Amino acid sequence: MKKIPLYLLALCTAASAAPYYLPTPPAGGLTPADWQPNWRLQGLYAVGAKHTPDTWGFRSGLELYSNEDSAIRHEFGINAAPQWGDGHRRRHDARAHQDLFLLPITAGYTLNIGLGEETFLFLGGKAGWAVGHYKEKSHLHRESATCNGFTFSAGGGLKVQCSERIYAHIGYEFGRTYTNTHHDDTFGQHIISAGIDWKF
Questions:
Q1: What values do phi and psi take at 12, rounded to 5?
Q2: Furthest CA-CA distance within the chain
Q3: Contact (Cβ atoms closer than 8 angstroms) between residue 49 and residue 188
Q4: Is CATH 3.30.460.30 the classification given to domain 39-199?
Q5: CB count, 10 Å around CB of 198?
Q6: Cα angle value 124/76/57 (rounded, 5°)
Q7: Of 20, 73, 80, 159, whose CB is crowded by the most CB atoms within 10 A?
Q8: What is the pLDDT of residues 86-110, one digit of tens each?
Q9: Which of 197, 176, 196 is nearest to 46 (CA)?
Q10: What is the pTM of this model?
Q11: C-alpha torsion angle, residues 153, 159, 162, 164 (rounded to 10)
């Protein structure tokens, strides 16, 4: 049996004793530690455009923020926003009463721009699919059916960091939902929101 040369044995011993260092991420690059999950809860009031009734409800979702210590923070989220409303419109030369329920489920992106140590301006948009139910009735006609269709919204607002884990925000969005109702109604909304984000 051949003997291992002494110099090879010494080299292997030195290599095993040398400390191992994890590679350092490139400067300025995001790492998984920079992404922080947040739970969002907002109250909503939406003023209907044209024949759309005003609605009220709430939005809840999961948001991921990046680069916690930066003045520019990127945010991705998935949200659900059930809304209820009623109103009136003219249809078939008669004044009809409307009842509406909408549930938009959306994914979106928001850019947060630091205005100070604890205040941010945010701009963003979201898009997805909405399902719902509507009713219309007057002395001339009556309709009731489920509806669904593409939905989107875009807007902005202000966000304030209240503590290490809690953010408060208020904002405005313009939203639109294209439905498959009998009349292919399009619901336009001016949405006012206020709520909190809680960091896990």
A1: -65, -40
A2: 106
A3: yes
A4: no
A5: 14
A6: 65
A7: 159
A8: 877 666 666 778 888 999 999 999 9
A9: 176
A10: 0.76
A11: 80
Amino acid at 143: E
β-strand 83-91 against 186-199: which pairing, if any? unpaired
Place of tokens 């503590």: 163
Contact 54, 39 (CB under 8 A): no
Radius of gyration of the chain (CA): 27
pLDDT tens figures, 55-81: 999 999 999 988 666 788 899 999 999
